[in-house]
Amino acid sequence: METIGLVLVIAGLAVLAAGVVALRRLRRELAVTEAQAAELARRMKALPPELANGLGTGARHVITVELLNLFELAHKETVLARPFTALTPRLLRDVVHRRLVGRVRESLTASGVVADVRLHRAS
Fold it and tell me: Is-above-0.85 flag for pTM?
């Protein structure tokens, strides 16, 4: 009986340690994301006119993508996403958006497409 208790205590400590490591990683990622957001906000003082005026009628074409299954994507990435969805949905949304923008940018570059991939908030 003592052996089972000892095994359960060790397993609990291992889960706790994994949670602390994951939390520290998320905090580091948040700090990086905040720095990137501040830099982006500084560079991007306003939306392009095409987006600001109802997506525009100019010569440029803009492709928009609305993510409809954001939290499901996050849940596929890590098992910790489900608890964080309840606690910090906006932070989780921002992390998923940032990762997907990076993936789109990489995919387009790998295909030889020169594109300005940006994330805009809509109301």
Answer: no
